[in-house]
Fold:
Amino acid sequence: MAAIEVRPLTKHIGARMTGVDLREPLMPDQVAAVERAMDAHAVLVLPGQDITDEQQLAFTRNFGPLEEGANSGARDAELRLPVVFADVSNLDKEGRIAARDNKKRMAALGNRLWHSDASFRATPARYSILSGRVVTTDGGNTEFADMRAAYDALDDATKAEIEDLVCEHSLIYSRGQLGFSDFLPDERVAMTPVRQRLVRTHPVTGRKSLFLAAHIGTIVGWPQPEAMAFIRDLMEHATQPQFVYVHRWAQHDLVMWDNRTTMHRVRRFDDLHVVRDMRRTTTRSEGPTAPQP
Structure:
């Protein structure tokens, strides 16, 4: 068994981990090493992981219950992958490059906005694990922002102001930013806004972080215009270059991140002509961050 090595990638966020082969079941000490590295760095890059869907699922199950139904806006008959995967490729259900007006493609454009996975669910995501089966080198980078460092850099008055604020999150808000509103009535019911704290505390490290996402549509108790102007200011603060790690994909990279302490987005690429096959599995966090109405 190779020794596990962890090398930081930036001052605040991200590390490269080697010495773990995800084609084999992980031993308890390896699982613990991954969790320690995640607590410290929030994003881990595991290069050279040429794995199957089953091996990705086996790895993911080490870190909690699976999040299912992550393909927002897609019906079961439209899915290319099982519901335990988020298909963040640019492929349709037949495995062809999706047409420009394909509904799944249109909804997936929201991934280009800064967000935290499943913040639109009462119990949001813990870890996201993204496997690069077919990657692009001309665009398609994934950027990660450290919400711990962003919180630490706020002045004391702002920290006091936001300490107990609660926001409403919904896919309707994030997709609406792009002018996408083609949801069926039952989909709109499924996208009923949920409440999340704006400041959350990591259950292991005790560090506070901002809980931001494009899915935010208001702050509870605030007029919506004022709330959204304030959230925009916080988003601009939190995504300054000094808080961001930019991942440039190589074939068979596996990248995992902690949604409790990060935001992320994918950058534009030529998705109408170049295949990008990325498969994400996700685990649920400990529970809701705020009481639901």
About this structure: The chain has one domain: 5-284. The chain has a mean pLDDT of 95. The chain has eight helices and 15 strands. The helical segments are 28-41, 53-60, 103-108, 147-152, 156-162, 171-177, 185-190, 224-238.
